[in-house]
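PT: before anyone asks, these are the final sequences, not the draft ones from last week. 414 residues across everything. Please model them as a single complex and drop the result in this thread when it's through.
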Amino acid sequence: MTTATSRAYDHVKQAILERAYPGGALLSEGEIASEVGVSRTPVREALLRLETEGLVRLYPKRGALVLPVSPQEISDVLETRELVETFTAGRATIGPELVAELTRLLEAMREHSGAADAKEFAHADRCFHRTLVAAAGNEILTQLYDSLRDRQLRMARLTASDPVRAADAIRDHSEILAAVRSGDRRRIRTAIHRHLQTATAALHGRS
Amino acid sequence: MTTATSRAYDHVKQAILERAYPGGALLSEGEIASEVGVSRTPVREALLRLETEGLVRLYPKRGALVLPVSPQEISDVLETRELVETFTAGRATIGPELVAELTRLLEAMREHSGAADAKEFAHADRCFHRTLVAAAGNEILTQLYDSLRDRQLRMARLTASDPVRAADAIRDHSEILAAVRSGDRRRIRTAIHRHLQTATAALHGRS
DNA sequence: GGCATACGTCTTGTATGTAACATAGATACA
DNA sequence: TGTATCTATGTTACATACAAGACGTATGCC
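LR: through. Structure below.
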């Protein structure tokens, strides 16, 4: 069985990312504890962790405030994401395994590009980028990147349920993969930069 | 009065950074609790936080392992630090307050360059860099940078107690400050890059 | 001797109890 | 009316209790 702490963590994190706990809400440990069916202790540990991830802010004796997404946060996340992705693209170890993995993930995106599979699509999308970042071999940046993607999840309204955007994403990823295959790092960086530009524009166009 | 959790956190963190708890040591909550004079609960919260900072690793039902510094970690920290510093240098809002603050910190470094003030020297050094990073206005990167500096603390053998290295650092920082005054961003990045190169070399030369 | 098993010890994971703090709203008073 | 104070309620911060898991070691058996 999974631990009580991780159940509490997953529950709260998912609720925040899906806006079931909206930005600005003040959560109490006891309330969450009874929802999840555990005691307050594991809930408290989950909230502590979510605070370090930047999703909530703990106010002593008051409760846990679900941080509203601010323009500053959006800008910081996007800026940092671009920094990490372009940098790691310049350092990634490019080999047959990497190409094979990226190919597989791109294929998964194509398979799930229908409106019904939005969740799987988003997952493959995310894994694609993550794989590329991880290929640079820097664990600190890989972990940072993961937390950025989580935070970005809250910002997107209805990510990827739009077929046009799904098609855009597939096209962009194909270009990134082709660039990786070519081994031309400048081309990879350019492709990633362009991809993030379109993604950013879409985000701003809807928020 | 400060909270029990923060006392436990400070105690353990300092002990790890100063190698009082050496890499590879297995800590138990109860042991720390009695050292600090609090119950296990706040100790546990402190350890959880230190795990997210990459200083310890919690093994279920076993204890908290003080992570030994690995070559991989050294490389990741240095690489990430350079990435963050050079990037933020390119975005920092350069104004009179920034220049004044950096000047003040450089002055503090000069004041404390004697061997007796190693701690104050290191503190001013760190604040100098932190101020520059923060001037870019990206909270995510600023926070990341802080954690990198903590981790780097463990790697340096006897940081800055060497007068030659202190003089080197002051010279490098002067050049960075001059570059900031000039407003030439390329020059700032170059100065930072050179500074990190010498710092890295010193680190490797001794470890 | 060699192997499996049982046991004792250490440690955590989780629940629960308690006191102190923060706040909102009521109340008293000028 | 406006202000200060009191009180009721909700919430955490921390301590403590207890059960269960992980290991090292001894024990029994061949």
